[in-house]
UniProtKB/TrEMBL annotation:
The species this protein was found in: Streptomyces violarus
Family annotation (InterPro entries): AB_hydrolase_1, AB_hydrolase_fold, AB_hydrolase_sf
Protein name: Pimeloyl-ACP methyl ester carboxylesterase
Residue ranges constituting the AB hydrolase-1 domain according to the UniProt record: 16-242
Entry-linked Pfam families: Abhydrolase_6
Record's GO cellular component terms: membrane
């Protein structure tokens, strides 16, 4: 069932969809002024921000929610009118899955590895048990890196820890066996040939990740952001906007 996501649309130019990470919302994109170059559609994923808290919570459902929203806004999704999409963290997976399913002019995945496998049972216990909040805070604390402590405090203040939503989005990692997860991952990364794809990392995805990604998405470009943090778009928003605009101009015909 598709639902109508909370959203805002600002700027002029080609359509760009901005997808936030888990526990966050569309306001996290506020410092990132992509509307200088694009007509930016910022969405709240289901269970996040002002969007309905309607299960199931998952990546495939989010792809359909976003596509339904774009269609409901009367956007032309054909050819050069199809959207660019930028996603951070969980949003990077959703952006990739969207491009595998629907016409897309280009993707920027911000600090989200697509190489996944089933998580250990103790993590499932932490996610679904009484230690959920402490577990999530510990995970994010390990990812802030060089991010300004003032920004870290602001993120922590605005982050929403909803156990049902979080565990729903993590279901593939918590419940699926390796073969099922691998098949889903292959579908999610099966983009049409030639779709521009920038994998922009603030943390280390692993020394051989660029080769792994190129095997899955031959058009992909993997780069390291100047700041070592899971939030490179917030650490250096002006640099990030410039990099996204240049990438889409060079490879995605953004104009």
């Amino acid at each position: 069932m598709n639902l109508t996501l909370a959203h805002d649309l600002n700027g002029t130019g080609p359509l760009l969809v901005a997808v936030h990470g888990i526990t966050e919302n569309r306001s996290f994109w506020a410092p990132v002024c992509l509307q200088q170059h694009f007509r930016v559609l910022r969405v709240d994923l289901r269970g996040h921000g002002d969007s309905p808290r309607t299960s199931p919570f998952g990546i495939d459902e989010s792809v359909e929610d976003i596509h339904h929203l774009i269609e409901s806004l009367g956007e032309d999704l054909t050819g050069d009118q199809s959207p660019f999409i930028v996603g951070h963290s969980l949003g990077g997976v959703i952006a990739t899955a969207y491009a595998a399913r629907y016409p897309t002019r280009g993707v920027v995945n911000v600090d989200q590895s697509l190489r996944v496998g089933p998580l250990p049972a103790e993590i499932a216990i932490a996610v679904r048990g009484e230690g959920f909040a402490d577990f999530v805070r510990t995970v994010f604390a390990s990812l802030y890196g060089e991010l300004d402590p003032v920004l870290v405090a602001d993120i922590e203040r605005r982050r929403t820890l909803d156990q049902d939503v979080f565990s729903g989005f993590w279901t593939p990692l918590l419940d699926w066996d390796a073969d099922t997860l691998a098949a889903w991952s292959r579908r999610t990364t099966s983009l049409p040939p030639g779709v521009p794809y920038l994998s922009l990392h603030g943390t280390d995805p692993g020394g051989d990740y660029a080769d792994w990604l190129a095997d899955r998405i031959p058009a992909a470009v993997a780069e390291q952001a100047p700041k070592r943090t899971h939030y490179p778009h917030l650490a250096q928003p002006e640099w990030f906007v410039s990099r996204v605009h240049k990438f889409f101009t060079d490879f995605g015909s953004s104009g």
